[in-house]
Design a protein that fits this description.
This protein is involved in the repair of mismatches in DNA. It is possible that it carries out the mismatch recognition step. This protein has a weak ATPase activity. It comes from Kosmotoga olearia (strain ATCC BAA-1733 / DSM 21960 / TBF 19.5.1). Belongs to the DNA mismatch repair MutS family. This is DNA mismatch repair protein MutS. With about 800 residues, the protein is an alpha/beta fold. The chain has 5 domains: about 100 residues, MutS, DNA mismatch repair protein, domain I (3-Layer(aba) Sandwich), CATH 3.40.1170.10; about 140 residues, Nucleotidyltransferase, domain 5, CATH 3.30.420.110; about 130 residues, MutS, DNA mismatch repair protein, Chain A, domain 3 (Orthogonal Bundle), CATH 1.10.1420.10; about 100 residues, MutS, DNA mismatch repair protein, Chain A, domain 3 (Orthogonal Bundle); about 220 residues, P-loop containing nucleotide triphosphate hydrolases (Rossmann fold), CATH 3.40.50.300. The chain is about 45% helix and about 20% strand. The protein has 27 helices and 26 strands. The strands form 5 sheets. The protein has a 6-stranded mixed β-sheet, sandwiched between helices. The longest helix is centred in the middle third of the chain and has 33 residues. The chain is elongated. The two termini are about 60 Å apart.
């Protein structure tokens, strides 16, 4: 297309579009944001808009006041959006109005409340690769949070991506060959590759130093590779936002040393986060009343503590709330009045705060003294009260300046409170009382002229005027100036009326300019306190999570866990925190781990509760290390470094991995990374292959975990042959789910007892599922034949004590805690 055939405005559009080829360009024209050519066709289809044309070119647009709702739809559909605004006043512009892109919106750079989920972080992440290590950075622009880590393998990187669930991922271009492996299990992530030069070390160092105003990057205590990715991400953010993001915090370093690390498999198997399936630990423990608390709860559940001192501090606070129901309810009442000041702070810092944000900030600052006073009433909680800042100066500014119910935007005199600006008050008085003044003027002129039907009117075309009927024209004074002649009347203006008109019309314009200026000044003053607001928001979020733990504990009958010093464990009457809400008369069970009970083989029929039992053991330990009370009568627990799970059957069709391969890969991860301080729960290892291969693998895995790792383990299985291990190893014990056989089937009692399952009762379960009687009858006939002829019970040799000693001797010579020899 030749530009000479286009209008100047269309040439302006194309010049800007050329710089943003990968974006939908929304081009401001009057009261609309318009798109042209292919962009118009795209938004017409995505937003269900009418496709029109301008000079023969496709065109579609959206009203400027509804921009956010349309942008949200485009972003959700996977598009980048460039906002092109008029950067000079059309009324004073000479020729074509100047326009520039003021912001590029992507899924990871959203900041407005209406575009975000209130209780979910909105992360943008960046990753590169250096000598097999993947430095990784995440940032939530909407809250200012930044964190860095280094993933030692591709598997670690995938775990981190699963845990953080970024909405946008920036990758070094050299990672393109690994795109499928890295993003295979991510859903709805917006992916962008940046050229290698974005990841240059020298420019990243200088950029990070300038961004944080640091003399040296040493203070950040992060690696050179992490600095490179941090710099690349910050450059991208600035490149798309066109504003400094000074509210972004110093990066938190995510190292495993301080937290129990949960891989993607464990998070999914234990249903820690909400999913399409019914129920999750997050939903069970969520009695938070602020959006900040909802986000913080998720963060804590994914990062249980290993520092016993920090765990106990959280538990002390939960117990203080738990023991004082009145204090707890009063705190919840105050927290309900607290708004999301983490995100409000970010919008203040970026110049995108709206009057509603300032109103919410004021309400939150007003409730802080009440929370502080309440916490001071309890010795344990008074320590937290010390950290609550009251922001008296900022609160007084907001109380004096912002109306109780401000308009959506400044400019009409309905945002700034009366009494804050004398000049604005005078202008508003003039506007609000203009009708009264006109009535006074009209009455004076009637008395002066004797024209009783004289009227003072206003319209947008002629402004203010005096209207006199034709029959009274002879009585019009000499100082009346004719303005318009109508059929039945004449319209006039006087010097006094003209002066008043100029005042009123200019007052409206002056109000718009002055109120916007006052509002921007207030926001600028408040922006100096952004980091302090963020800190207060973080403190409120933590209080909200801790009161949530206490609220749920009170409601569900949880107890405070106690931690052992010798890595032993005893949980009495343990319950599954999620399942108990869906099952009538849930049956609690005990679990004990010590030197003579470190490994359990759990057998029993399907549907008897094996999976529920092993999951509840893991979830109780996780809850305790998060700082929550636990569903049990009594709980003595060790501090675990990791929880590993291998549960259920699933494949990875897209990755070309069968169910059995996925099972073996998960098992290999456990055997290579578990330590003696870990908790391992296994369900049906070896079931994805032939019976003999499966038993062999399950047997070897069990021996390896017991001998080479020595961690607390529960292995739920249908391979009753594995129970022979209890005869060979002192610390391996057998447990089963109690079943009562009746004439036409079985009753599952869901009680875990010592012993071995007599049979799997698979046919009885099939009957419950509704298989036809003829199929069930035939299955029983076949089972009798197999049992009579099977030699399976002879395939696993029970070794003598001398042979066991020889095996242990050989193993201890070949294996140590970090060695993985099976896979």
């Amino acid at each position: 297309m030749k530009n000479k055939s286009l209008t100047p405005m269309m040439r302006q559009y194309l010049e800007i579009k050329e710089k943003y080829k990968d974006c939908i360009l929304l081009f401001r024209l009057g009261d609309f944001y318009e798109t042209f050519f292919e962009d118009a066709r795209v938004i017409s289809e995505e937003l269900q808009l009418v496709l029109t044309s301008r000079n023969g070119h496709p065109m579609a647009g959206v009203p400027y006041h509804a921009l956010d709702q349309y942008v949200k739809k485009l972003i959700s559909a996977g598009y980048k959006v460039a906002i092109c605004d008029q950067v000079e006043d059309p009324a004073t512009a000479k020729g074509l109005v100047k326009r520039e892109v003021t912001r590029v919106i992507t899924p990871g750079t959203l900041i407005e409340d209406d575009l975000l989920s209130s209780e979910e972080n909105n992360f943008i992440a960046a990753v590169s690769e250096e000598k097999g290590v993947f430095p990784f950075v995440i940032a939530d622009i909407s809250t200012g949070d930044v964190a860095v880590t280094s993933c030692e393998s591709l598997s670690d990187l995938k775990d981190v991506l699963y845990r953080t669930a970024p909405s946008q991922l920036i990758m070094n271009e050299k990672l393109k060959p690994l795109k499928k492996e890295i993003t295979g299990e991510l859903s709805n992530v917006f992916l962008e590759f940046l050229e290698e030069w974005h990841f240059a070390y020298s420019s990243s160092v200088e950029y990070v130093k300038r961004f944080y105003e640091l003399a040296s990057i040493d203070a950040l205590e992060i690696s050179s590779a992490e600095i490179i990715v941090l710099g690349a991400l910050f450059k991208y953010i600035e490149m798309t936002q066109f504003k400094p993001m000074k509210h972004l915090s110093l990066p938190r370093v995510l190292r495993r040393s301080g937290y129990m690390y949960l891989d993607a498999s464990t998070i999914e198997n234990l249903s820690i986060l909400p999913s399409e399936r019914r129920g999750s630990l997050y939903q069970t423990l969520k009695a938070t009343v602020t959006s900040m608390g909802g986000r913080k709860l998720k963060e804590w559940l994914l990062n249980p503590l290993k520092d016993l001192g920090k765990i106990e501090r959280r538990l002390d606070i939960v117990e203080a709330f738990y023991s004082d129901p009145l204090l707890l309810e009063e705190l919840r009442e105050y927290l309900r009045q607290a708004f999301d000041i983490e995100r409000i702070s970010s919008r203040l810092a970026t110049g995108r705060a709206i009057p509603r944000d300032l109103q919410a900030l004021r309400t939150t600052l007003q409730v802080l003294p009440l929370i502080k006073e309440l916490l001071y009433s309890n010795d344990v909680l008074s320590v937290i009260a010390e950290d609550i800042e009251l922001f008296e100066e900022e609160r007084k500014l907001l109380e004096a300046s912002i109306s109780d119910e401000p308009a959506a935007a400044p400019g009409e005199g309905k945002v700034i409170r009366r009494g804050y600006s004398e000049e604005l008050d005078e202008l508003m008085d003039l506007l609000e009382h203009s009708q009264d003044k006109m009535k006074e003027f009209e009455l004076r002129e009637r008395q002066k002229t004797g024209i009783n039907n004289l009227k003072v009117k206003y319209n947008k075309v002629f402004g203010y005027f005096i209207e006199v009927s034709k029959g009274q024209v002879s009585r019009v004074p000499d100082d009346y100036i004719r303005k318009q002649t109508l059929v039945n009347s004449e319209r006039y203006i006087t010097p006094e009326l003209k002066e008043f008109e100029d005042k009123v019309l200019s007052a409206s314009e002056r109000v718009a300019v002055l109120e916007r200026a006052l509002y921007e000044d207030i926001c600028q003053k408040l922006s100096n306190s952004v980091q302090r607001f963020r800190k207060a928001g973080g403190l409120l979020a933590e209080l909200d999570v801790l009161q949530s733990f206490a609220t749920v504990a009170k409601k569900c009958g949880y107890t405070r866990p106690v931690f052992s010093s010798n890595h032993t464990s005893y949980v009495e009457a343990a319950r599954h925190p999620v399942v108990e809400h869906y099952v009538k008369d849930f049956v609690p069970n005990d679990i004990q781990f010590d030197e003579k009970h470190s490994f359990y083989i759990l057998t029993g029929p399907n549907m008897s509760g094996k999976s529920t039992y092993i999951r509840q053991v893991a979830l109780i330990s996780l809850m305790a290390q998060v700082g929550s009370f636990v569903p049990a009568k009594r709980a003595i627990l060790p501090v675990y470094d990791r929880i590993f799970t291998r549960i259920g059957a699933r494949d990875d069709v897209a990755g070309g991995k069968s169910t059995f391969l996925v099972e073996m890969m998960e098992t290999a991860t456990i055997l290579s990374q578990a330590t003696e301080d870990s908790l391992v729960v296994l369900d049906e290892v070896g079931r994805g292959t032939s019976t003999f291969d499966g038993i062999s693998i399950a047997w070897a895995v069990s021996e390896y975990i017991y001998e080479a790792i020595g961690c607390h383990t529960i292995f739920a299985t249908h391979f009753t042959e594995l129970t022979e291990l209890s005869q060979m190893y002192e610390g391996i014990n057998n447990k089963t789910i109690e079943v009562r056989e009746i004439e036409d089937g079985v009753i599952f009692l869901h009680k875990v007892v010592d012993g071995v399952a007599s049979q799997s009762h698979g046919i009885d379960v099939a009957k419950l599922a509704g298989l036809p009687d003829i199929v069930l009858q035939r299955a029983r006939e076949i089972l009798k034949i197999i049992v009579k002829t099977s030699a399976l019970d002879k395939t696993v040799k029970v070794l003598s004590s001398d042979e066991i000693k020889e095996i242990r001797k050989k193993k201890k010579g070949k294996m140590h805690k970090n060695q993985m020899s099976l896979f």
